[in-house]
């Protein structure tokens, strides 16, 4: 069964600290893995998207890693800010990319991050 | 990045009435749009996929007669929740892509049926 599991479910850190969120998946065949940030009551915003051959990708203070062998990914946030408080969702695409590949996206439940002053 | 605008951002309606939600791609032509539903503390669940000018493809368990989707142009798709009931209360989100590009999401619509 195609699944995406994220940990921890929730996390509280102090402003300025770093944190790492985990994502394990069993989706096959694998096409790409995405990390989204979703603020409460808002639509998801893409942070990174990685294909099979990519091990790491950065977007500002966000760095995602991917180990396709162990089917694990992580999202590292450095020097956290209050605005980083949100839900971070790991999404795995299980099809070869085409115009309709989003239909096969497998969504994780997300990690709820709270950054406190 | 590309902008997808969803309207309204929230709506309260009486049970039995219909509600229309609009999704617009503001700076690109969306060949495909997707409609999702999200309950509190749960993942986004794909409801349907719509391609411009053709009928929407609904996911298993989604009633096509209840959730009417129209994708009449390359920049606009609408979702109409017909005869809404309290159990239809949820967060509805659309996303749009142009051919093989990244998907961009609208800001979502909070529907409350009373």
Explain what the structure shows:
The complex is a heterodimer of chains A (117) and B (114). Chain A is an all-beta fold. Helices cover 0% and strands 54% of the residues of chain A. Chain A contains no helices and eleven strands. In chain A, strands 2, 4, 5, 9, 10 and 11 form a six-stranded mixed beta sheet that branches. Chain A has a five-stranded antiparallel beta sheet with strand order 1-3-8-7-6, with no helix packed on it. In chain A, a hairpin with a 4-residue loop joins strand 7 (62-67) and strand 8 (72-77). The radius of gyration of chain A is 14 Å and the shape is globular. The relative contact order of chain A is 0.33. The model of chain A has no long low-confidence stretch (mean pLDDT 89). In chain B, strands 2, 4, 5, 6, 9, 10 and 11 form a seven-stranded mixed beta sheet that branches. A four-stranded antiparallel beta sheet of chain B has the order 1-3-8-7, with no helix packed on it. Chain B is built from no helices and eleven strands. With 114 residues, chain B is mainly beta. The chains are: A mainly beta (117), B mainly beta (114). Chain A binds chain B through residues 41-46, 49, 89, 97-100, 102-103, 105, 107-110, and chain B through 1, 4, 6, 31-32, 34, 41-46, 49, 51, 57, 91, 93-95, 97, 99-100, 102-108, 110.
């Amino acid at each position: 069964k195609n699944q995406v599991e994220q940990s921890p479910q929730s996390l509280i850190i102090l402003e300025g600290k770093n944190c790492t969120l985990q994502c394990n998946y069993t989706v096959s065949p694998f096409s790409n893995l995405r990390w989204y940030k979703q603020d409460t009551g808002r639509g998801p915003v893409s942070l990174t998207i990685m294909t099979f051959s990519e091990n790491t990708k950065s977007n500002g203070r966000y760095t995602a890693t991917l180990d396709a062998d162990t089917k694990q990914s992580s999202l590292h946030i450095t020097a956290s800010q209050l605005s980083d408080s949100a839900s971070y969702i790991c999404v795995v695409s299980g099809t070869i990319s085409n115009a309709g590949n989003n239909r096969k996206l497998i969504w994780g439940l997300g990690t709820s991050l709270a950054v406190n002053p | 990045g590309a902008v997808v605008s969803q309207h309204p951002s929230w709506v309260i309606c009486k049970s039995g009435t219909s509600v229309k939600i609009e999704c617009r791609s503001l700076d690109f032509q969306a060949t495909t749009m997707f409609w999702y539903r999200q309950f509190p503390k749960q993942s986004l669940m794909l409801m349907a996929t719509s391609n411009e000018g053709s009928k929407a493809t609904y996911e298993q368990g989604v009633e096509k007669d209840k959730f009417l989707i129209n994708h009449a142009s390359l920049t606009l798709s609408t979702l109409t929740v017909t005869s809404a009931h309290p159990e239809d209360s949820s967060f509805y989100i659309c996303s749009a892509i142009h051919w093989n590009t990244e998907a961009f999401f609208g800001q979502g619509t909070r529907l409350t049926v009373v």
